[in-house]
Protein backbone atom coordinates (compact mmCIF):
# COMPACT_ATOMS: atom_id res chain seq x y z
CA UNK A 1 0.00 0.00 0.00
CA UNK A 2 2.77 2.43 0.85
CA UNK A 3 4.59 1.90 -2.45
CA UNK A 4 1.57 2.09 -4.74
CA UNK A 5 -0.04 5.08 -3.02
CA UNK A 6 3.29 6.73 -2.21
CA UNK A 7 2.52 6.92 1.51
CA UNK A 8 5.03 7.62 4.26
CA UNK A 9 5.84 4.23 5.77
CA UNK A 10 6.13 5.72 9.27
CA UNK A 11 2.58 7.10 9.05
CA UNK A 12 0.97 3.77 8.18
CA UNK A 13 0.46 2.18 11.59
CA UNK A 14 -2.52 0.13 12.78
CA UNK A 15 -3.66 2.90 15.14
CA UNK A 16 -3.19 5.69 12.59
CA UNK A 17 -6.26 7.44 11.29
CA UNK A 18 -6.82 7.56 7.54
CA UNK A 19 -5.65 11.17 7.55
CA UNK A 20 -2.53 10.43 9.62
CA UNK A 21 -1.65 7.64 7.18
CA UNK A 22 -2.00 10.05 4.25
CA UNK A 23 -5.20 8.54 2.91
CA UNK A 24 -7.13 11.58 1.72
CA UNK A 25 -10.26 11.07 -0.37
CA UNK A 26 -8.30 10.76 -3.62
CA UNK A 27 -5.96 8.16 -2.11
CA UNK A 28 -8.96 6.22 -0.81
CA UNK A 29 -10.42 6.04 -4.33
CA UNK A 30 -7.05 4.87 -5.64
CA UNK A 31 -6.77 2.29 -2.83
CA UNK A 32 -10.19 0.90 -3.72
CA UNK A 33 -9.14 0.51 -7.36
CA UNK A 34 -5.79 -1.10 -6.46
CA UNK A 35 -7.43 -3.58 -4.11
CA UNK A 36 -9.89 -4.57 -6.83
CA UNK A 37 -7.51 -4.69 -9.79
CA UNK A 38 -4.40 -6.15 -8.19
CA UNK A 39 -5.82 -8.23 -5.37
CA UNK A 40 -9.42 -9.03 -6.33
CA UNK A 41 -10.72 -7.46 -3.10
CA UNK A 42 -13.92 -5.51 -3.69
CA UNK A 43 -14.18 -2.61 -1.24
CA UNK A 44 -15.77 0.62 -2.37
CA UNK A 45 -14.26 3.98 -1.62
CA UNK A 46 -17.42 4.82 0.36
CA UNK A 47 -16.82 1.77 2.57
CA UNK A 48 -13.21 2.82 3.12
CA UNK A 49 -14.26 6.36 4.02
CA UNK A 50 -16.50 4.97 6.77
CA UNK A 51 -13.49 3.40 8.49
CA UNK A 52 -11.41 5.42 10.94
CA UNK A 53 -8.08 3.63 11.26
CA UNK A 54 -5.60 1.64 9.20
CA UNK A 55 -6.38 -1.38 11.41
CA UNK A 56 -10.06 -1.17 10.43
CA UNK A 57 -9.12 -1.02 6.75
CA UNK A 58 -6.87 -4.07 7.13
CA UNK A 59 -9.60 -5.95 9.02
CA UNK A 60 -12.09 -5.31 6.21
CA UNK A 61 -9.51 -6.39 3.62
CA UNK A 62 -8.93 -9.63 5.56
CA UNK A 63 -12.67 -10.18 5.90
CA UNK A 64 -13.24 -9.72 2.16
CA UNK A 65 -10.24 -11.91 1.33
CA UNK A 66 -11.59 -14.70 3.52
CA UNK A 67 -14.86 -14.56 1.59
CA UNK A 68 -13.10 -15.07 -1.76
From TrEMBL:
<dbReference type="Pfam" id="PF00550">
    <property type="entry name" value="PP-binding"/>
</dbReference>
<feature type="domain" description="Carrier">
    <location>
        <begin position="1"/>
        <end position="65"/>
    </location>
</feature>
<dbReference type="InterPro" id="IPR036736">
    <property type="entry name" value="ACP-like_sf"/>
</dbReference>
<protein>
    <submittedName>
        <fullName>Acyl carrier protein</fullName>
    </submittedName>
</protein>
<dbReference type="InterPro" id="IPR009081">
    <property type="entry name" value="PP-bd_ACP"/>
</dbReference>
